[in-house]
Amino acid sequence: MTKTAWNVDKVSLKAKRASISFVKTIFKYLAILVMGFTGGVFAPLFLSRYVGAQVTEVADAFSIANTYIIFTTLFFVGVTVIMAALGYVITQQLALSKGEHERQALNDIGVKLSKDEQVGIELINQLLTNPDVLRHIEAQMGDKVEQVVRERSAAAERKSERLAQQAGEAQQEAEQLNGFFNS
Questions:
Q1: What mean pLDDT value characterizes the chain?
Q2: One domain for residues 92 and 46
Q3: Which residues have CB under 8 Å from 26's CB, separation 6+?
Q4: Would residue 8 count as lying in a domain?
Q5: Within a domain: residue 176?
Q6: Residue 156: its pLDDT value, please?
Q7: Which stretches does UniProt call biased (Low complexity) (predicted)?
Q8: Does residue 124 form part of some domain?
Q9: Number of domains in the chain
Q10: Are residues 90 and 141 in the same domain?
Q11: Which of 115, 149, 168 is the last residue of a domain?
Q12: Domain of 86?
């Protein structure tokens, strides 16, 4: 296992532990809320067994109905707020774990590519079917070809200057030798 793979494994293990701890905490608070709502729902049932509501006027019946409507509305609003908060928190956790999963997947692909030549060839073949990837590769290859041509042109120019200089020196030596033999 490479050093990078080991580091990613340690990071993903920490992320998994944090996620498990987070889920346990969510379930604990959710259990407390469910018990509270259950008690709030069943308490009037048990209390009405011992102490009945005596309705003597029509206004009392409307009052009881309004109280019931308000209670159920508050109950549903509470459930809705809790569900929205949980949805937000879970979305945040999934977004964090998604990044970890992507990093782990890329690391695994890199390890697999370094060990298996056929996987690398298949990956390149799949990449070459994407027009955006082809356009990017063409641009990169064009830049690289231009760079190589510039480097070779500069090297050829330096070599031709050096050869011209050597030719000039050889010409001077030849003239000196001609002058030596002619004298």
A1: 80
A2: yes
A3: 86, 89, 90
A4: yes
A5: yes
A6: 92
A7: 164-176
A8: no
A9: 2
A10: no
A11: 115
A12: 3-115
CA quadruple 56, 57, 58, 62: dihedral sign: negative
Q: Which of 39-53, 112-126, 146-160 has the highest mean pLDDT?
A: 146-160
* Domain C-terminal end among 58, 80, 115: 115
Average pLDDT over residues 140-153: 91
Q: How many CA atoms lie within 13 A of 14 on its CB side?
A: 7
Q: What is the pTM of this model?
A: 0.36
**120 domain residue, yes or no:** no
Q: What is the pLDDT of residues 44-91, one digit of tens each?
A: 777 777 776 676 787 777 887 888 888 888 888 988 998 898 888 888
- Kindly report, residue by residue over 120-141, the tens digit of the pLDDT: 888 888 888 888 888 888 888 8
